[in-house]
Design brief:
Elements: H1 12-26, H2 28-35, H3 41-67, H4 69-76
Length: about 80
């Protein structure tokens, strides 16, 4: 449950903005979307495996860019006009 205590002399808009940030960080909307439809356990496991492999590949790609000095130099180089 997300609660926001409105501070003294704080505008409603500011308190609402703080509430929205806390609400997003808590992942309430994400949870509501996932629970809105039934998902078979086998499908959930399949999606979790796909997500894991994507994360591993992405981390490997980032690590390769960090370790390869030529790749990082090429990335930073800009073309002058």
């Amino acid at each position: 449950m997300v609660e926001v205590q409105v501070k003294e002399k704080e505008s409603f808009e500011r308190a609402l903005r703080r509430f929205k940030k806390m609400w997003e960080r808590a992942g309430i909307l994400r949870e509501v979307r996932t629970r809105s439809f039934y998902e078979k356990p086998s499908d959930a496991k399949r999606e979790a495996r796909k997500k894991t492999t994507r994360r591993i590949k992405r981390n490997a790609r980032i690590e390769a860019l960090r370790n390869d000095p030529r790749a990082s130099r090429q990335r930073r180089r800009r073309r002058r006009k």
